[in-house]
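[agent] plan:
  1. take the single chain provided in the ticket
  2. run structure prediction with default settings
  3. attach structure tokens to the ticket
  4. add a short note for the reviewer (M.T.)
[agent] executing step 1
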Amino acid sequence: MSSPKIKETLKNKKPSKKETPRAKKILMKPIPLYIFILLCLPLFSVGLFLYHPQKTFKKPSTVINQNFEIADASARIVRENDTGLIKPLLLVEINNEQNFASVRTKINNYIEQKKKQGTISSASVYLNDLNTANHIEINPEELYDPASLMKVPLMIIYLKESESAPGLLQKKFLYKENIKGTYAATIKDKTLIPGKSYSVEDLLYYMIVYSDNQAFWLLADNIDNHKFDLLNKDFDIPIKFDNLNHGDKGQNFIANVNSMSRFFRVLYNASYLNEKMSLYALNLLTQCNYKEGILRGVDSSTKVAHKFGERVENGVAEFHEFGIVYLRNRPYLLGVMSKGNQLNQLPEFVGDISEIAFNEMKIK
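[agent] step 2 finished; step 3 output follows
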């Protein structure tokens, strides 16, 4: 017989439910809203992708510029010479007169005006919209002495070598005295100090930023001269020499406006040097301290990677300049090569051509 205390206990005790496992208790807890959203996002994204067919997918903006029409236009493709199974693409340019009809007319008229005034005897112009590769060439057959423009291919040669020899830029050369002073630079700022050693990196800076001839010759004397020929071959540049004025003095390289443009285009495309070295070269070119040519024709806030060259020989003055003008979202390459009687008149002529090109390009 049960005691009253036990009976009271049994009376008050509620029927017990089956014990719930610990894992099930966790699963039965309410899920916070933010966790629910995070869990659903992947499923939502997959469903959205499956719902929308691929025809609605847009390419990234970085490649849209490659989808341009070339109807009624001719294309030129330059590939790097390679004896193996590949032939890397270096350059592409489209000759589409419709896109540049206005600027071509204005530049041609200005050139003819300056010829009549006696400011120039000849001039050639290269203009390339770097987003589309559409370009024009004015008087493309004329040949010129590139002069200090040759400092750009020499820089490219050293930077190409440094890709496989990382310590090359720190290698030092002793500058003893003036080297090959046949051509005296009239446009100069700083130069090397005799008896001092300079690294390749320092020499490239002097050569590009200050256009120092001594830095050029010191670098040129420490490489195989055939590397220039190999570079021209890679870029499909005809190797021609001024035998008329230099037949008995050795070879003097001459080139047209298209050939010289290729050194700048491969840097912009990073198609010959790797990206790091292409950026290195273009950064140096943006620091070029010469202001009287292409820079005169663009807004002061516009960045330009440029290099000039000058030469006076046998009564003929030559002044040339090439520059990549980083105009907002429409960068372009402008190259002007000119000949005349007075060297001091030619930079202004180049600046005026630059202004015409800049005003035309910025409104398109």
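[agent] step 4 note for reviewer: The two ends are 108 Å apart (CA to CA).
[agent] ticket updated
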